[in-house]
């Protein structure tokens, strides 16, 4: 159904109908910095002291002691003993309230503060196993459910007065985060024509970079962690309401055999965007019938039958090309996540000021949303990806060769690393949408996000390992090697820039053929190069 399925967008200009889909992802990404980086400000280390000593006298210094010494004379003998401190006071000269100070998470309770950081990637990793639900129940349905739970989790974190309820909220935010993105990104990219796809992919990331900067600015003025968290999470609140007005994905409806409904959705899109529908119902139904076995396997929930699982495994690994694709794309996400999160997690190499550092991260990544589409337009996905991985690797490894007195060179390398890694993350999302066919696209995102959050978790684990922190060259070397591996892996993938989205694995396999034999050929259309499905 390649030609008609893609051509149905040819008569519909980009407009309000597309923006509704894109807006929910932009709002989600605007609130994402609060979820990823809130722990930096919620867990700011502050000095503490025991509220009182054993004699009941007020302690006047913040000595960070977990125990107090008591002394007594018994039968003429002088005895000393250590007693646990039961309540603590925290230095509020820099911040008025943190997650640590509010719940007294020091000494024997310090592990709970660490869980505030780790529970998010743990929940996200688990959530990736539910991504197939959007293939079974539809992208929009999953967005409605996951966004509602996500907002509830935000309210738990911002308002709950019990520490374990706060952690539960963080877990549900992490759990629903990949589920929402796994449905939202394909929905956004499936709703636009190929010439707009790379622009939309990076447009979605733009709010994230902007709100990383805003998080650093607001954190400087708002020193109460709950207020800061709730304010920076506000963009996510209207998403469940907006989702009520979204139409079901035309592509998903076609995969379910509901072609007439898809046609009605496209009519609505054409009316809203002031365009026309070029949609061959007869051809679509014929193609759907010819590929019925593959389309029926698109219900990728965790409750698949054995037969459906076998069919899915055949789709993902049944050919050399799909096997290569199913290995390469998640691996690129994994390697990219290690580098992308490694830079902020290794923040002590750049500055001890978290406010300035967050502003710098956002400022450095902001060009990624602007440069990404341009680089892809002129150089394609693969050449751009290879170059960015190599530049990032050179920056990470080059930092090891720079002496401390040349601090400004290290800052240049750091800024280049953040900019390039930001473009790489956007490119991974684009490649996943463009390379995986519709019948397994959500599953492809599921595998990719699982690898991504595994890389996030591993990056935080490595950065906190004692042997790594004590070896000044270790972390940069690991990140540099990851970039070189990424450049090698992406070089084996086919170029997909500007090509139509594949519906079936058979169509995806055609991409490995020489251009003269492929069903996907470039055809000159005036001043622009478009892609059409040529019958072979």
Automatic annotation (TrEMBL):
Task: Tell me which GO cellular component terms the UniProt record holds.
Answer: membrane
So where does this one cross the membrane? 110-133, 145-165, 171-189, 201-222, 228-246, 321-343, 355-376, 385-402, 408-432, 444-465, 471-493
Gene Ontology MF term list: transmembrane transporter activity
Q: Which Gene3D superfamilies match?
A: MFS general substrate transporter like domains
| Family matches, as PROSITE patterns | MFS
Major facilitator superfamily (MFS) profile domain location is: 69-497
Instruction: State the name under which the record lists this protein.
Output: Major facilitator superfamily (MFS) profile domain-containing protein
Organism equals Meganyctiphanes norvegica (Northern krill)
């Amino acid at each position: 159904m390649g030609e008609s399925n893609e051509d149905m967008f040819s008569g519909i200009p980009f407009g309000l109908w597309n923006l509704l889909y894109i807006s929910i992802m932009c709002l989600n990404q605007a609130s994402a910095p609060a979820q990823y980086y809130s722990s930096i400000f919620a867990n700011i280390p502050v000095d503490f002291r025991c509220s009182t000593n054993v004699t009941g006298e007020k302690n006047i210094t913040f000595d960070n002691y977990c125990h107090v010494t008591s002394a007594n004379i018994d039968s003429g003998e002088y005895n000393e003993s250590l007693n646990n401190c039961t309540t603590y006071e925290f230095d509020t000269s820099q911040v008025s309230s943190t997650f640590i100070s509010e719940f007294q998470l020091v000494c024997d309770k310090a592990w709970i503060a660490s869980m505030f950081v780790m529970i998010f990637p743990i929940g996200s990793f688990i959530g990736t196993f539910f991504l197939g639900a959007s293939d079974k129940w539809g992208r929009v349905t999953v967005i409605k459910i996951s966004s509602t739970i996500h907002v509830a989790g935000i309210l738990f974190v911002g308002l709950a007065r019990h520490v374990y309820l706060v952690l539960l909220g963080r877990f549900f935010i992490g759990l629903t985060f990949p589920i929402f993105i796994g449905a939202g990104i394909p929905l956004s990219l499936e709703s636009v024509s190929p010439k707009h796809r790379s622009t939309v992919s990076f447009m979605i990331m733009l709010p994230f970079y902007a709100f990383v900067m805003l998080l650093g600015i607001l954190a400087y003025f708002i020193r109460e962690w709950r207020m800061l968290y709730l304010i920076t999470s506000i963009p996510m609140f209207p998403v469940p309401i907006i989702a009520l007005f979204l139409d079901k994905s035309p592509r998903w409806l076609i995969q379910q055999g509901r072609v007439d409904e898809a046609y009605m959705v496209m009519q609505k899109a054409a009316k809203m965007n002031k365009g026309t529908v070029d949609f061959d119902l007869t051809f679509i139904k014929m193609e759907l019938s010819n590929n019925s076995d593959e389309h029926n396997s698109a219900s990728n929930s965790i409750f698949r039958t054995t037969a459906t699982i076998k069919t899915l495994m055949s789709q993902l690994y049944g050919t050399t090309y799909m096997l290569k694709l199913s290995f390469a794309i998640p691996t690129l996400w994994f390697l990219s996540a290690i580098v992308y999160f490694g830079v902020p997690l290794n923040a002590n190499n750049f500055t001890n000021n978290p406010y300035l550092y967050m502003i710098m991260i956002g400022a450095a990544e902001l060009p990624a949303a602007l440069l990404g589409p341009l680089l892809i337009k002129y150089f394609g996905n693969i050449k751009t990806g290879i170059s960015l991985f190599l530049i990032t690797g050179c920056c990470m490894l080059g930092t090891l060769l720079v002496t401390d007195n040349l601090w400004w060179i290290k800052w240049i390398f750091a800024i280049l690393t953040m900019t390039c890694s930001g473009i790489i993350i956007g490119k991974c999302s684009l490649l996943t949408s463009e390379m995986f066919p519709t019948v397994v696209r959500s599953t492809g995102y599921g595998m990719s996000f699982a690898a991504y959050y595994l890389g996030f978790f591993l990056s935080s684990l490595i950065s906190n390992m004692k042997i790594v922190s004590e070896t000044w060259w270790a972390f940069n070397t690991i990140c540099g090697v990851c970039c070189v591996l990424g450049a090698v892996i992406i070089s084996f993938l086919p170029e997909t820039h500007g090509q139509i989205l594949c519906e079936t694995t058979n169509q995806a396999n055609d991409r490995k053929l020489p251009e003269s034999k492929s069903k996907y050929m470039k055809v000159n259309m005036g001043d622009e190069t478009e892609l059409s499905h040529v019958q072979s």
